[in-house]
Write a sequence for this structure.
């Protein structure tokens, strides 16, 4: 089975080919236009997708040495995401599917982040997954393919959103998450004790209080002090966020008595989070799956493999497939 995956949920136009059980190509066209605004501008994102999607798909096919006639299906991000961006990808996928008389497969973008782990890891169930990105932070129990139970989710800001918003307070470039991660490696995580909301309670998350705390803390400091101790401040903020994420994942794993767990989403690339979760998994004797760095952030390989898994389960869609902006439990 040869599947084309298309991802256009936010500001990355991506295409990938999955065939013979492996990813043959994974092309990503990033949009630098948003950096000057400190965040993604939806209208500019959809226009950029429209300009680049044909070229991106063509490049993915060429790199994989696959022709359009070889495709058995087209998998595409259905949501959650920006409606204008999703519509570009969906329209392209539907047009291709219709012209080639092949099925279209709608893929939940958040599910795809989880199943990206199976590009390089054996497919095993059940497992608990911590999905952490700019828009979502949630714990999910997966009993078998596409049978999910949400155990906990953020009540306000997602972890990635907290990184980016606090980074903006610190005058870091967008996206701030990777920058804070890099700065944190040379800092003291115990430099300042930032709050760890709800760390001892349940499986839900809350990061808005941390954002407010960082704002008030920095407002009381001289710019020269912040500049001198920027590494330490970033490390302390990262320590607070990753502490909460790790504790909640451990709690979920114990409560559900699983032998497998995974990280997924853009924030799963964070070095401090990876180190803490790896240490925790070793302590519990649990198999931990983390995607390779290039499969953590938005990409089409995760769409392609999830589409192939859905095709295996005979979970196809029709041309009435519609996008959705928000995640439903």
């Amino acid at each position: 089975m040869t599947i084309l995956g298309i991802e256009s949920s936010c500001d990355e136009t991506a295409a990938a080919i999955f065939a013979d059980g492996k990813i043959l190509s994974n092309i990503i066209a990033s949009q630098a236009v948003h950096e000057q605004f400190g965040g993604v501008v939806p209208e500019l994102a959809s226009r950029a997708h429209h300009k680049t999607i044909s070229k991106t798909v063509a490049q993915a096919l060429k790199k994989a040495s696959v022709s359009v006639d070889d495709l058995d299906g087209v998998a595409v991000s259905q949501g959650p995401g920006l409606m204008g961006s999703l519509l570009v990808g969906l329209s392209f996928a539907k047009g291709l599917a219709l012209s080639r008389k092949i099925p279209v497969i709608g893929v939940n973008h958040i599910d795809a982040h989880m199943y990206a782990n199976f590009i390089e890891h054996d497919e095993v169930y059940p497992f608990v997954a911590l999905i952490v990105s700019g828009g979502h932070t949630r714990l999910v129990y997966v009993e078998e393919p596409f049978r999910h139970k949400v155990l906990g989710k953020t009540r306000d800001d997602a972890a990635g959103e907290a990184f980016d918003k606090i980074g903006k307070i610190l005058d870091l470039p967008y996206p701030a998450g990777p920058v804070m991660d890099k700065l944190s490696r040379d800092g003291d995580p115990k430099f300042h004790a930032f709050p760890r909301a709800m760390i001892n309670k349940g499986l839900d998350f809350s990061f808005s209080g941390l954002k407010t705390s960082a704002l008030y803390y920095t407002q009381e400091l001289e710019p020269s002090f912040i500049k001198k101790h920027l590494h330490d401040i970033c490390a302390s903020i990262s320590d607070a966020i990753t502490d909460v994420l790790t504790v909640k994942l451990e709690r979920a794993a114990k409560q559900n008595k699983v032998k497998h767990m995974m990280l997924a989403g853009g924030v799963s690339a964070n070095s401090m989070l990876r180190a803490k979760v790896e240490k925790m998994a070793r302590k519990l004797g649990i198999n931990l799956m983390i995607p390779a760095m290039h499969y953590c952030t938005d990409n089409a390989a995760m769409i392609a493999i999830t589409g192939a898994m859905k095709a295996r389960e005979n979970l196809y869609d029709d041309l009435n497939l519609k996008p959705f902006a928000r995640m439903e439990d």
In short: The mean pLDDT is 93.
